[in-house]
Amino acid sequence: CLIHFYKSKMSGAVAKVAKPVMRGLHVQSIKKNLIVSTAVALVASTAWYFQINKARKDAYANFYKTYDAEADFQRMKAAGVFQSIQIIEEAQGGGGDDEE
């Protein structure tokens, strides 16, 4: 009598557990993975654009708003950065006296 009691309880518990859905499980998981990966890529690329690219473009724009190339050239020339400037100035200044 006790054996029949446990058999009926166990068979009822096992019968209530649903079977897992195996048909189309691979396709369903691929669809989910594609949607998640697309969302992550979209968020990452948007964050990269606003935090890195846009900030860099704004920094370059702000730099070139006030940049004076001629003043920068004169500063570097006075500091002696360009080695050929001295040779060119000597050739322009003293080159006309040697020719006759």
- Choose one word for the global shape: rod-shaped
Low-confidence stretches: none
Question: Roughly what fraction of the amino acids lie in strands?
Answer: under 5%
Q: Based on helices, strands and strand pairing, what is the structural class?
A: mainly alpha
Mean pLDDT over the full residue set: 83
The count of helical stretches stands at 4
Count of distinct strands: 0
Task: Please bin the fraction of helical residues.
Answer: over 70%
Biggest β-sheet, characterized? none
Provide a descriptive summary of the structure in words.
The chain is mainly alpha-helical and 100 residues long. 82% of the residues lie in helices and 0% in strands. The chain contains four helices and no strands. The longest helix has 41 residues. The radius of gyration is 40 Å and the shape is rod-shaped. It starts with a helix and ends with a helix.
List the helices and strands and how they pair.
Elements lengths: L1 H15 L8 H41 L3 H11 L4 H15 L2
Q: Which features would summarize this protein structure in a list?
A:
0% strand, mainly alpha, 100 residues
